[in-house]
Design goal:
By secondary structure, the chain is mainly α. Helices cover about 75% and strands about 0% of the residues. The chain starts with a helix and ends with a helix.
Length: about 190
């Protein structure tokens, strides 16, 4: 089992006790509201009604708690079936769909915390299992897995830029133009000319 795979299995466990569930619920809320850096163990413990040492005893560190509760796998489930020649636009449309706002917020929180080794490893593992492995297996030609990782990077970049481009792209027409424009760039990696 690779380092990434073993890290994923460690974080996939659901909180088992009422105390763990209370900590996890409050941590998830505070991380979404304030980001990784803005939510302290003390804040999480206080919101859950426990001592900070209890949080550490159950979750070992703030980074491991974050990785366990952020819930990216809950939101990010792109459809990778269908024709490859239109996948770029489909992936971008999926990512920017109004009903996926919570997914974009969760993705942003995770990306902003990715300077921590544990969280960077979790992000890499999540993208690998949720998109890259399946997409890479479908791509034809040279460097299929590298191209799949680059598609992943393009999608992460779009999420990071969303706050800046959302005002002009929040209408139906603006979103359609952005899906075409960015989808075309993504498509170059999926089916290179």
């Amino acid at each position: 089992m690779s380092e990434v795979s073993s890290a994923v299995s460690k974080f996939d466990r659901a909180p088992a006790t009422p105390t763990q569930r209370a900590i996890a619920e409050q941590a998830q809320r505070l991380f979404h509201e304030h980001g990784f850096s803005g939510a302290s163990i003390r804040d999480i413990a206080s919101a859950a009604g426990v001592d900070p040492s209890i949080v550490i005893r159950h979750f070992h560190s703030k980074a491991e708690l974050f990785a366990r509760v952020i819930g990216f796998d809950t939101y990010f489930r792109p459809q990778l079936d269908g024709p490859l020649d239109t996948m770029g636009e489909r992936l971008v449309a999926y990512l920017l769909a109004p009903e996926h706002a919570e997914m974009r917020r969760t993705f942003t929180v995770l990306l902003r915390a990715a300077d921590h080794a544990v969280l960077r490893q979790e992000l890499v593992a999540a993208m690998s299992r949720l998109m890259v492995e399946e997409l890479g297996a479908r791509l034809e030609g040279a460097d299929a897995m590298t191209r799949a990782w680059l598609v992943s990077a393009q999608l992460m970049g779009l999420v990071q830029a969303w706050d800046a481009i959302e005002p002009e792209s929040s209408t139906g027409d603006g979103r359609t133009r952005l899906v075409r424009l960015y989808g075309s760039a993504v498509q170059q990696l999926i089916t290179p000319r």
